[in-house]
C-alpha cells in the first residue's frame, strides 16, 4: 500500500514546505499526487543498500559539507562552489537512479535552511524536495504517515465492503445477473460485458463516465481470446480504454467470459470487488445453465407435441414460459452445427429472444437446431443465426399439419448447403435449381460412376477404343443411331457393335430407359 505526498505535505500540523516539485514542467499539484511506499530517515553518504524503490528520504544533511551552519557552535568548512555542486549532484543522482522519488530536508538543525545546490540537483534529476521545519521531528512525520496508512486502509476496507454489499444485494434481485453487472459497473466506474461461450454478447453495460468501446471491436477481442483458450487477458484496445477479460468456467468447457473496460487502472479495492463479482457471476451462470438445460428439455418436448398435432396446448405452455408461439405462415430453419454441439448454441438464442422482439420458437430436432419464425421476423432471425457456427437451411410452412415436412425440407436444404459449402442460408426451392440430379452427393455419385463405367474406360485405355465417347454421343442424341453415327463418323453397324460391347462391359441393357438415365448421370459425375 502506498502513501500520497499530498496527505503529508498538505497536513497543517506538519508545516512542510514544497521547494522542488520534481521534473521540469511538473506542477506542484502533480507533485503532490505522487505516491511513495515509505519514508526512511538517514544521513548516510550512500543509503541505497537499505532503501526500497519509490521511497522518500528524510535527512538532516550530515553527509554534506556544512558551508552555512544553523548554529555558531557548528564548525563550517570551506569548499569551492564547483566541488560543493558535485557533492550534491553525486548524491542526488545516486538516490534518483535507485528509484527514490523525493527528499525531506530538516532545516535549521545542521544547515541553515535548505542548501541551494541540493535544490538545483533535485530539479535536474526530477526529485521532489520539501523542507521539514526545525520544530517538526522526523518521528512526527513517521507517526503521521503511519496514521495516514491506517486511515487509508480502514477507508479502503470500508469502501470494499460497501461495494461488495451493494453488488451482493443486486444479485438477490429477480434479474440477479443483470443487476449484479449493472451494480459492478457503477461501483467500479467501468464498462461491464458478459459474453456466452461462443463469443456473443449477452449483457453489455457502458461505463458510467460515458467512455465506450464499440461492441464489434470488443466482440472480436473476446472471440479471439476464447479461440486461444486463454483464462485471463488484458488488452489495450484504445489509448484511453483497457479491456480486462476473465474466462468463466474451464477453457475446454467455458460458461462465458466477463469483460471490464477501464479508463484507469484498478486499485486494491477494485480487485477485491472484482473477485466477489466473479464468484457471484459464476454462481449465477451455473444456476442459469441448470435452468437452460431444463428449458432445452422442455422445448424439445414441446416441439414433439406440436408435431403430434397438439398446437393449442403447446401454444399455452410456450406463452406461459417464454413468449407467444409464432403463428403460421412460418419460416422453418434447420441449423446443422459446425464444430460445436447444438446445446452450446441454445443459451445464445435464449439471450437473443430476451433482447430482441422476435416471434420465434426453437428446440433441438434430431441433433440439429430447429427454429420456427413468423414470416415477418424471418430475415432478422436468419441474420442473427448466420453469426453462429451453423449451416442453415430454410423452408416454409403454411399450416401446422405441414410442419414435419417443412422441417425435413429445411434439413435437406442445410445438407445441400454443407455439400456445396455454401455461405449463408439455403432455401429448399433452391436445391433443385440445376435439376433433380443436383440433389445427389457429388462425391458419392463420382464413386458409383467410376464403379459402373470403370470397365469401359479400362477397355478404351487397353485397346485404344472410343467406347466412352460413343456412349456419351449416343445418349446425347437420345439413343437415336443415325445422328450419333454421323457425329462419330462411323457406320451405324459399327455403332451397334460398340453399343453391344458397352452393354457387355457394364452388364446392362441399353434398351432400358432407367439404365440410360443412370448411365447419363454416371457420365456427368465421371467427368466431374
TrEMBL record:
Annotated ranges, domain PucR C-terminal helix-turn-helix: 467-524
InterPro entries associated with the record: CdaR-like_regulators, PucR_C-HTH_dom, PucR_C-HTH_sf, PucR_dom
According to the entry, every stretch annotated as the Purine catabolism PurC-like domain falls at: 27-147
Supply the name of the protein.
Answer: Purine catabolism regulator
In its UniProt entry, the species of origin is given as: Leucobacter aridicollis
Amino acid at each position: 500500500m502506498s502513501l500520497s505526498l499530498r496527505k503529508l505535505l498538505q497536513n497543517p500540523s506538519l508545516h512542510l514546505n514544497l521547494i522542488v516539485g520534481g521534473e521540469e514542467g511538473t506542477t506542484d499539484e502533480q507533485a503532490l499526487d505522487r505516491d511513495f511506499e515509505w519514508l526512511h530517515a538517514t544521513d548516510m553518504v550512500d543509503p541505497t543498500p537499505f532503501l526500497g524503490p519509490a521511497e522518500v528520504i528524510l535527512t538532516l544533511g550530515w553527509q554534506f559539507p556544512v558551508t552555512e551552519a544553523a548554529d555558531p557552535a557548528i564548525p563550517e568548512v570551506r569548499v569551492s562552489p564547483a566541488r560543493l555542486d558535485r557533492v550534491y549532484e553525486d548524491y542526488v543522482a545516486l538516490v534518483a537512479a535507485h528509484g527514490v522519488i523525493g527528499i525531506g530536508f530538516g532545516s535549521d538543525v545542521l544547515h541553515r535552511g535548505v542548501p541551494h545546490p541540493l535544490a538545483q540537483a533535485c530539479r535536474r534529476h526530477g526529485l521532489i524536495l520539501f523542507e521539514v521545519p526545525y520544530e517538526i521531528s522526523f518521528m512526527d512525520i513517521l507517526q503521521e504517515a503511519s496514521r495516514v496508512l491506517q486511515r487509508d486502509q480502514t477507508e479502503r476496507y470500508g469502501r470494499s465492503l460497501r461495494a461488495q454489499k451493494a453488488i451482493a444485494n443486486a444479485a438477490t434481485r429477480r434479474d440477479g445477473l443483470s443487476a449484479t453487472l449493472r451494480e459492478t459497473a457503477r461501483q467500479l466506474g467501468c464498462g461491464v460485458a458478459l459474453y456466452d461461450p461462443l463469443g456473443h454478447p449477452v449483457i453489455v453495460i457502458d461505463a458510467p463516465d460515458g467512455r465506450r468501446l464499440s461492441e464489434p471491436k470488443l466482440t472480436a477481442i473476446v472471440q479471439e481470446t476464447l479461440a486461444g483458450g486463454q483464462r485471463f487477458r488484458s488488452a489495450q484496445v484504445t489509448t484511453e480504454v483497457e479491456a480486462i477479460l476473465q474466462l468463466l468456467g474451464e477453457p475446454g468447457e467455458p460458461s462465458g467470459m466477463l469483460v471490464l473496460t477501464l479508463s484507469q487502472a484498478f486499485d486494491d479495492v477494485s480487485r477485491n470487488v472484482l473477485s466477489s463479482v466473479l464468484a457471484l457471476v459464476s454462481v449465477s451462470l451455473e444456476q442459469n445453465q441448470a435452468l437452460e438445460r431444463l428449458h432445452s428439455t422442455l422445448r424439445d418436448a414441446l416441439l414433439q407435441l406440436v408435431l403430434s398435432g397438439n398446437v393449442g396446448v403447446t401454444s399455452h405452455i410456450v406463452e406461459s414460459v417464454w413468449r407467444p408461439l409464432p403463428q403460421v405462415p412460418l419460416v422453418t430453419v434447420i441449423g446443422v452445427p459446425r464444430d460445436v454441439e447444438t446445446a452450446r448454441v441454445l443459451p445464445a438464442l435464449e439471450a437473443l429472444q430476451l433482447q430482441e422482439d422476435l416471434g420465434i420458437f426453437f428446440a433441438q430436432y434430431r441433433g440439429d437446431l430447429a427454429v420456427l419464425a413468423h414470416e415477418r421476423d424471418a430475415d432478422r432471425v436468419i441474420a442473427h443465426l448466420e453469426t453462429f457456427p451453423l449451416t442453415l437451411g430454410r423452408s416454409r410452412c403454411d399450416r401446422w399439419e405441414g410442419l414435419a415436412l417443412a422441417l425435413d425440407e429445411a434439413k435437406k436444404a442445410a445438407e445441400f448447403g454443407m455439400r456445396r459449402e455454401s455461405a449463408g442460408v439455403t432455401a429448399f426451392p433452391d436445391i433443385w435449381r440445376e435439376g433433380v440430379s443436383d440433389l445427389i452427393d457429388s462425391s458419392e455419385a463420382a464413386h458409383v460412376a467410376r464403379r459402373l463405367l470403370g470397365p469401359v474406360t479400362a477397355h478404351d485405355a487397353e485397346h485404344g477404343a472410343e467406347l466412352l465417347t460413343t456412349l456419351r454421343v449416343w445418349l446425347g442424341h437420345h439413343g437415336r443411331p443415325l445422328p450419333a453415327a454421323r457425329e462419330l463418323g462411323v457406320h451405324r453397324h459399327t455403332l451397334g457393335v460398340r453399343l453391344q460391347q458397352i452393354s457387355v462391359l457394364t452388364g446392362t441393357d441399353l434398351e432400358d430407359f432407367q439404365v440410360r438415365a443412370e448411365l447419363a448421370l454416371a457420365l456427368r459425375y465421371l467427368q466431374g
